[in-house]
Amino acid sequence: MTTAEHNKKLVRALYEDCINTGNLDQLEVLIAPDFTGARGERGPREFRATIEAVLTGFPGVRFEIHDLFGEGDRVAVRWTFRAVHGGRFVGLSPSHAEVAQEGNVIYQVRDGRIVRAWLQADRLGVLQQIGAVPRSFAESKPV
C-alpha cells in the first residue's frame, strides 16, 4: 500500500470507524499530539472536545463521504453530515430539526497520524436549519 493510500484509509477510518460509531478513544491513535485543527484546536484531546460538541448537539450524526482524494501527505474529503438537532449546540437548545451540512476538509498526515486539518463547512446553513438565523434576508426582522 502506498503512503497516499494509507493516508486515505486513515482519514476514512476517522469518519467511519471513529466519529460515526462514537468510538472517540480511537482519536488517540489517529490524531498526532502536535495536531492543529481548523479552529485552532491542539492535539487529540481538543479535537475530541470539538467532535464531542457535535455529537452532543446532534446525537446519532452520520458523516457520508462523497469524495476522498490523496496525494503525498494531503487527503481531501467532501462529506455531508445528517442528524437531528437533539442536544445543546453552541449554546442553543435543541430544535429537533433535521439538519444536513456539507463540508470539505484537507488533512495533512505525518508518520501515520493526522497533524493538520483545514475545514470549510456550511455553518450558516446549520444555524438556519435549527432556527438560530433567518433562512433569508426577507425573513429577517426590520432593524
- What count of structural domains? 1
Element string (H = helix, E = strand): HHEHEEEEH
The largest sheet has its strands arranged as 1-5-4-3-2
Q: How many extended strands?
A: 5
CATH topology: Nuclear Transport Factor 2, Chain: A
Write up what this structure looks like.
With 143 residues, this protein is an alpha+beta fold. It has a single domain, classed as Nuclear Transport Factor 2, Chain: A. It has four helices and five strands; from the N terminus they run ααβαββββα. The protein has helices at 3-19, 27-30, 43-57, 123-129; strands spanning 31-36, 62-71, 74-84, 98-110, 113-121. Strands 1-5-4-3-2 form a five-stranded mixed sheet. It starts with a helix and ends in a 14-residue tail after the last helix.
Structural features:
143 residues, 30% helix, Nuclear Transport Factor 2, Chain: A, elongated, single chain, 4 helices, five-stranded mixed β-sheet, alpha+beta
